[in-house]
Amino acid sequence: MSKPEPRKPCTMRWRNLWRENVRFAKRGWGENLSTQFLAVLTRDFQLSVKDGDLQVINGHWYVTHTGLLRLARRKRCSGIHVEAVDSLCDSAASRFVLKATVYPSKNSSGFVGYGDADPSNVSALVHGAEMRVAETRAVNRALRKAYGIGLCSVEEIGTIPNPVENLPPQNANGNGNGSGPKVRDRLCQIIRQHKLDPELVKAYAVDFCGTKTLREASREQVENFVLQLAGWAEKDRNALLCQLNSYSHPKQEVVA
Asked: Where are the domains of the chain?
């Protein structure tokens, strides 16, 4: 009787990742979540729920910008080029269309994707950053084409549910609950606890407060931001990471 062949390491790795993905997905989005599609995404693309590669909104799976960039890195993507489509852009109306070309290998002719953004199809939290959103959407579409992912990315949909709308209004006196240093300490604690990117959090805070720099924001505005950031991080960290990723500034050329 011949001995059974040992499992291939790659098979074991994806099965272990799939079990981890199921565990984190059910913990974050409920026990009734279908895992059949998750198994395919895990096997074919090695996407990780824990690392924020995937997101579930209204029962539907989405890939994230983080997940696509991590996939491109694993696949040794040769480069990404992004340019504005000037004829379709209107900076006065904050309407931008960008074209991204992904080169999976040095000899590839490239896979093209377009992304558009204007105040009508982005979250109110990122108004003023429509060009960056359009860039992220263009890169996402090009990466999905290059690696055969038919799943829509979360950044391509119009908005992400905003937990700020559910917060109670601040007291009329606007004094807050603590001094400036305490607010900064609390913000640093949230960043460390939930492993957030400080620069992306800062960019998010500026948009949230509606000021050109964080120094111009009032103490009340910063306290409200810290309050909502803490609540969102505790309730749905993956959704928060998706929001923060919209403030990233990927380089035009990325060579692995």
From this structure: 9-50, 51-159, 163-169+178-239
Which residue, 132, 124, 143, 161, is CA-closest to 63? 143
- What distance, in Å, lies between the first and last C-alpha atoms of the chain? 47
CA distance 65 to 29: 20
Query: Which residue, among 121, 54, 108, 116, has the nearest Cα to 81 in the 3D structure?
Result: 108
Categorize the per-residue pLDDT at 93 as very low, low, confident or very high, splitting at 50, 70 and 90. very high
Query: Residues 38-56: what's their mean pLDDT?
Result: 91
Q: Give 51-159's CATH code, choosing from 3.40.47.10, 3.40.190.10, 3.30.160.20, 3.40.50.300.
A: 3.30.160.20
Q: pLDDT for 199-222, tens place per residue?
A: 888 888 888 888 888 788 888 788
Query: Residue 135 — left, alpha, or beta (φ > 0 → left; ψ -120 to 50 → alpha)?
Result: alpha
Residue 122 near residue 157, CB atoms below 8 Å: no
Name which of 91, 156, 158 is nearest 123 in CA terms: 158
